């Protein structure tokens, strides 16, 4: 393991147990306040654990007796807020980490310009941060973090301010850059998680609630959050061989080789849900456009219906509907 | 240069440091120039300040060759500390005089009229001129109600020159110095409080002989003449 | 958890020594046996009382006049402002005695304003008002300068947010701008209070020196030096204690 | 485009008047016909030269010693720091004459350090070094206090970002922290230069008053006042001009 | 019209001509640096136009002679960065605009608590901004903006820092709040645009390049950006009655009642694109997971293929493919 974080921050009720393998990118997801930024602060050295330890490549960064200062950790954070140095130009900002590592001035300039160029920012090299738009500033910050060439890169929602135009290209670039590197990406974006990270850890209320290979966690989510991130409906119940007896009441037909009597989780896509006479009774909470379909949200389940269907049934918040899913569309796995 | 005894023309330039009470500035600067013209290669540097400041500085190692005090009390401090190289000599005196702004707006005539309704400024009892003020006050059987008891004569004089005060008690020499800005009014009780100025060379000085020569110049005929020109009295 | 380069300890230590050693040297000279008697003499107490009263008044005046000045200087730009700034800072550089002369030329009986006030029967010189004027004159730039710097550093984003929420300029000032620069405002106030407390030259030149009316602690100390150096040292020590107390208090409130 | 409440113009104007009127009153008293002769006399020029030279040295010393002190005070917290801060600020509150006495007690012939230096043949008091020491002693707190406030206001986010990019503390200090507080550093330096330029009481007490060696412009002004008040006013005016020039220059560089 | 913005900022090369009807919500979209934040600054009063004018409800806010200060405009901005007052608690921040409008202290507190509660923040009322996570802070800022009850609300990417958990709920709340209100939403998120705004304006390089009802602009995009936002491929060409002669070369079959010979635009979904022997020749730039499909990007077109298809054809960056679309999947409209 490259990074091992086994530490707690008592005053924030956060207790973490994370590992990131060498060359691996880990996605850290979870609702607001779950402790994602706290985890990153512990690793970067902005925060001291109240107990436990942090180690990187076998070197202890922090425990009761040890404290490696942030600049000495070779851990670079790229946060939601670009924090560009206001007194330096865009270029000066990217030159900064290179000079800090002792790269000669001319060399540093050249390499910094390459980084800016790669992000489509060469024309803005001379601008001060105050003269950049939000997304431009964020891209300069990314170039700067890449220039620092850290042992571990921490990304705290790197794409939040980027436009749809740039995000895919940048995601590609980051992917290339992250290949073979150790990194943690905090994200609310399933695409980021999927394209950047091999493994994902789901935090909720300061604790790890789900973890595994990204596609696995998103395909078979074990937490409500992971399910929502993957855009799936998630229910829990007991498998009786033909149906799942749901915890909240009701039954759901499915196909599964699992042994009857076991506690299971079941996931299915909202697009697989249809209205039926004999489905699970639910109350409509909201209707929103979703691509060329309409997403209908109920207390726990979502359904993507065609606008024609939704209109024909006079769906509106408050309407009671019966939801059904074809058994072959329900993925069932052990709870 | 002429008349310097035992003067070696090849000697390196020397500086004579004279620490003198602030009130002596003008006559001493005149005497200093005279001294320099008589001693080739010698520069006289003055340090003028309140006598007590000067004593303190000399005690802390200030490079003084000569010390001239505005009162005997401060000279005593120096001798008590054993820093006098020779016995101090009283070389001049000063007496009090009433100073009023030009035109005498409050119509002051004598010491008694200072008790009237006017802005009177005097020295604080803690400083030499204030002690003298107390003495004449007592001698005249009066009780002043000053609006300010100043730190030094200069402060008193400045209040009068600027017209802030209607009258002030200062030294004769100060009235002379102030020129047209103030008018002086003599009063007989002044003779009850004559202030004596002592001078001496300082122990451990760099130029003891030159220092003694300067003391001799001040106490001698020429010195007394210059001092008298600024209103100082005979020793 | 911030890390500073270790080498700064050397110059910082030297700087601290330069300040602390003289204070220690002075404390060593205090005659502790007479201390209490010396500082509780009638004249000492009168001076202490007057000093506290005038310095507090002056510090209040500095806040009242100086905060608006700092705001204008920090939030408006232009050729004119730069001249105004230079003028406002002059009392810093003037030897206080010269400042006192300038005040006399203004508020004295024959001064620019004073001669008109005299006609109205108002006399400022030789009064406690004159002390406050002198102290405010020398202390004002301290507050203005330190606050202006903080206001510039703090920037205007919170003020813009407040205006966008409908807050009128007065409310922005009292509820956003000033609370945000509170640390600087407090230290500026302490600075100006301290400068007022230590003021000597302008006071003696402009206000005179009368016990209970215009003779503040520094004037008393200076006077005692002539007759009773021990008392002067003891009083200086008291002044130091007052200063330490005020500064520590201000810092406590600031971090609270 | 920032809007300030209109009413602050009143107190700000009053404050500006309090400072500007006395300066105008003094300028009105300058005898322009003799002005040039008065300020170019040998003694005036010697004093001006000495003043500029010592004040610049002192300002440099303040930066050298004060910046590390401000950094330590702003970036470390704890009981001890608050005491150190109070001590460091004491020279602000001490009447300069008392500061001079304290310096004598330290560096004088019989002083705490002076008596050891004396043995080594080094004498500080009454030399140009003493002038610089006195000026640094009184001016240091200005720099420390104004810079500390700015450092606190600026916060540590940029420093944390720099460390995350691998910059060692020294580089963070020189390339991030100091450039960010440059306006405050400059105004702090101007403050301390100005305070050094105007320093009188501590100098006359600790360094004495010897032409060309220790008699700075304020001492010369004080001396001239006794014999030639006109010259004193003219010299004060020169001091004002120097101050305005320095402040304006610093501001130009700051906005550049 | 409620808001009329006809103004330029010369130094940023931005020239705008926008109108927002009374009670209407307008989405402002466009790539980074297009001038979206600049438009908002002109309206809020953070920036003065170098020429032109801004007026709200018939009142001129800014022109050559007029300047209404920001606090007097009843325009509230909610930006990417929450800018919470650091010296006030979360509650104090929300109380602020209420007090500024003269609401009595007790009342203001009560209403502020309601706003916090509505956003699920009641438990954090006493926290200082420094003690909140990024998303929590952003939600407090939203509550504060709602409390200001402005005549015009400007939202600059309000959802950027919100988790998937909260965003839908908040979008609902904002929708309710925006109903009948005048607002401008800057967003990179098609869902925000669709669910919050009736009309959309697309900016590119400081100029308006497309405008219209949101569904219309997204269904028939006229700019590359709008097409990417809608997730559609967009091509331009000349309609010959059966096919479109594409500007860049090649032909595309379609069905359209348009008069032959007219210049047309054509849009189609990436999912409608398939690999064919005789399609448009394109080079693969990247492959990324996209839901349960794989998104293949080429120089200008995107195709969503099944993983099986993509794997069978050995697709990789650099591979040349031929893309085809069924004529009935191509939407054609006048350029
Ligand atoms: N300085 C602080 N002091 C006390 N509590 C804090 C502080 N900063 C954050 N918290 C709390 O700690 C918990 C974890 O916060 P953290 O910032 O790690 O969340 P996060 O997962 O990054 O959320 P988001 O997605 O909103 O950024 C939250 O309950 C938050 O309110
Ligand atoms: N203060 C400034 N001075 C000069 N140019 C600026 C300034 N701020 C922004 N710009 C430039 O003006 C143009 C428009 O910027 P604006 O901030 O309006 O873009 P935006 O559409 O909000 O972009 P984003 O999505 O990245 O926030 C950009 O080219 C930008 O670089
Ligand atoms: O010359 Mo003195 O010692 O100020 O009276
Ligand atoms: Mg966070
Ligand atoms: Mg923007």
UniProtKB/TrEMBL annotation, chains A, E:
Keywords: ATP-binding, Nucleotide-binding, Transport
Keyword Chaperone: no
GO MF terms held by the record: ATP binding; ATP hydrolysis activity
Top-level division of the source organism's lineage: Bacteria
Residue ranges of domain ABC transporter in the record: 5-230
Family annotation (PROSITE patterns): ABC_TRANSPORTER_1, ABC_TRANSPORTER_2
InterPro entries xref list: AAA+_ATPase (IPR003593), ABC_SmlMolc_Importer (IPR050093), ABC_transporter-like_ATP-bd (IPR003439), ABC_transporter-like_CS (IPR017871), Mo/tungstate-bd_C_term_dom (IPR008995), P-loop_NTPase (IPR027417)
Name of this chain's protein: Molybdenum ABC transporter ATP-binding protein
Organism: Brachybacterium paraconglomeratum
Higher taxonomy: Bacteria, Bacillati, Actinomycetota, Actinomycetes, Micrococcales
Automatic annotation (TrEMBL), chains C, D:
InterPro entries per the UniProt record, alphabetical: MetI-like, MetI-like_sf, ModB_ABC, NifC_ABC_porter, Sulph_transpt2
The entry's keywords: Cell membrane, Membrane, Molybdenum, Sulfate transport, Transmembrane, Transmembrane helix, Transport
Domain ABC transmembrane type-1 span(s) in chain numbering: 48-250
GO function term, MF aspect, one: molybdate ion transmembrane transporter activity
Subcellular location field: Cell membrane; Membrane
Parts of the chain that traverse the membrane: 51-74, 86-108, 120-151, 172-194, 231-250
A Gene Ontology term for the protein's cellular component: plasma membrane
Protein origin, superkingdom: Bacteria
Topological type in the membrane: Multi-pass membrane protein
Keyword NAD: no
Keyword Kinase recorded: no
Pfam families listed in its UniProt record: BPD_transp_1
Its job: Part of the binding-protein-dependent transport system for molybdenum; probably responsible for the translocation of the substrate across the membrane.
Subunit structure: The complex is composed of two ATP-binding proteins (CysA), two transmembrane proteins (CysT and CysW) and a solute-binding protein (CysP).
Family classification: Belongs to the binding-protein-dependent transport system permease family. CysTW subfamily.
Name of the protein in its database record: Molybdenum transport system permease
Gene of this entry: modB
């Amino acid at each position: 393991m490259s990074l091992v974080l086994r530490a707690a921050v008592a005053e924030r009720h956060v207790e973490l147990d994370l590992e990131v393998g060498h060359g691996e990118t880990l996605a850290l997801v979870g609702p607001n306040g779950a402790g994602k930024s706290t985890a990153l602060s512990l690793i970067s050295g902005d925060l001291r654990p109240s107990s436990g330890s942090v180690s990187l490549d076998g070197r202890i960064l922090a425990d009761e007796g040890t404290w490696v200062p942030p600049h000495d950790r070779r851990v670079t954070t790229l946060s939601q807020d670009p924090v560009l140095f206001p007194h330096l130009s865009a270029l000066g900002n990217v030159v900064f980490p290179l000079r800090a590592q002792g790269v000669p001035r001319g060399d540093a300039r050249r390499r910094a310009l390459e980084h800016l160029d790669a992000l489509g920012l060469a024309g803005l090299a001379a601008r001060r941060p105050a003269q950049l738009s939000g997304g431009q500033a964020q891209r300069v910050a990314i170039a700067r973090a890449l220039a620092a060439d850290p042992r571990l890169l921490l990304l705290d929602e790197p794409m939040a301010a980027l436009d749809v135009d740039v995000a895919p290209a940048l995601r590609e670039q980051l992917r290339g850059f992250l290949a073979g590197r150790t990194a943690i990406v905090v994200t609310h974006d399933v695409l980021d998680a999927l394209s950047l990270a091999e493994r994902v850890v789901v935090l909720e209320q300061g604790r790890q609630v789900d973890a595994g290979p990204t596609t696995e966690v998103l395909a078979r989510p074990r937490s409500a959050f992971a399910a929502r991130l993957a855009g799936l409906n998630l229910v829990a119940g007991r498998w009786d061989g033909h149906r799942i007896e749901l915890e909240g009441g009701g039954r759901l037909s499915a196909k599964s080789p699992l042994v009857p009597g076991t506690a299971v989780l079941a996931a299915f896509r909202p697009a697989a849900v249809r209205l039926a006479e004999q489905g699970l009774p639910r109350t409509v909470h909201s209707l929103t456009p979703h691509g060329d379909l309409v997403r209908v949200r109920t207390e726990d389940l979502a359904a993507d219906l065609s606008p024609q269907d939704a209109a024909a049934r006079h769906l509106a918040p408050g309407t009671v509907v019966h939801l059904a899913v074809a058994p072959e569309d329900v993925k069932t796995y052990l709870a | 240069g002429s008349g310097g005894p035992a003067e070696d023309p090849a000697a390196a330039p020397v500086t004579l440091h004279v620490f003198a009470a602030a009130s002596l500035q003008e006559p001493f600067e005149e005497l200093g120039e005279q001294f320099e013209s008589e001693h080739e290669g010698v520069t006289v540097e003055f340090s003028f300040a309140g006598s007590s400041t000067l004593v303190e500085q000399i005690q802390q190692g200030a490079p003084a060759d000569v010390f001239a005090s505005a009162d005997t009390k401060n000279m005593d401090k120096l001798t008590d500390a054993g820093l006098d190289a020779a016995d101090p000599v009283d070389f001049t005196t000063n007496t009090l005089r009433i100073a009023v702004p030009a035109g005498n707006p409050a119509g002051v005539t004598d010491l008694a009229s200072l008790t009237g309704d006017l802005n009177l400024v005097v020295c604080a009892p803690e400083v030499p001129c204030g002690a003298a003020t107390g003495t004449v006050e007592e001698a005249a059987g009066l009780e002043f109600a000053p609006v300010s008891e100043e730190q030094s004569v200069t402060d008193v004089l400045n209040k009068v020159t600027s017209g802030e005060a209607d009258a002030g008690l200062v030294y004769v020499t100060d009235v002379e110095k102030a020129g047209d800005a103030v008018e002086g009014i003599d009063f007989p009780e002044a003779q009850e409080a004559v202030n004596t100025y002592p001078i001496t060379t300082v122990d451990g000085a760099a130029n003891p002989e030159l220092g003694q020569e300067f003391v001799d110049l001040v106490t001698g005929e020429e010195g007394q003449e210059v001092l008298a020109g600024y209103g100082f009295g005979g020793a | 958890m911030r890390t500073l380069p270790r080498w700064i300890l050397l110059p910082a230590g030297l700087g601290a020594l330069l300040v602390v050693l003289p204070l220690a040297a002075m404390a060593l000279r205090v005659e502790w046996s007479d201390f209490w008697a010396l500082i509780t003499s009638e004249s000492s107490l009168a001076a202490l009382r007057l000093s506290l009263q005038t310095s507090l008044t002056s510090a209040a005046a500095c806040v009242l006049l100086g905060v608006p000045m700092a705001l204008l200087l920090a939030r408006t730009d232009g050729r004119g402002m730069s001249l105004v700034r230079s003028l406002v800072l002059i009392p810093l550089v003037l030897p206080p005695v010269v400042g006192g002369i300038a005040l006399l030329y203004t508020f004295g009986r024959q001064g620019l304003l004073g001669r008109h006030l005299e006609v109205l029967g108002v006399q400022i010189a030789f009064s406690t008002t004159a002390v406050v004027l002198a102290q405010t004159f020398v202390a004002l730039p301290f507050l203005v300068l330190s606050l202006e710097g903080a206001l510039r550093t703090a920037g205007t984003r919170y003020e813009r947010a407040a205006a966008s929420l409908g807050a009128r300029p007065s409310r922005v000032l009292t509820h956003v701008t000033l609370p945000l620069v509170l640390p600087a405002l407090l230290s500026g106030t302490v600075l100006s209070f301290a400068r007022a407390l230590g003021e000597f030259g302008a006071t003696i030149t402009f206000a005179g020196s009368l016990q209970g009316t215009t003779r503040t602690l520094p004037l008393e100390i200076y006077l005692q030096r002539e007759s009773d150096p021990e008392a002067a040292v003891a009083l200086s020590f008291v002044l130091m204690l007052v200063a330490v107390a005020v500064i520590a208090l201000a810092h406590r409130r600031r971090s609270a």
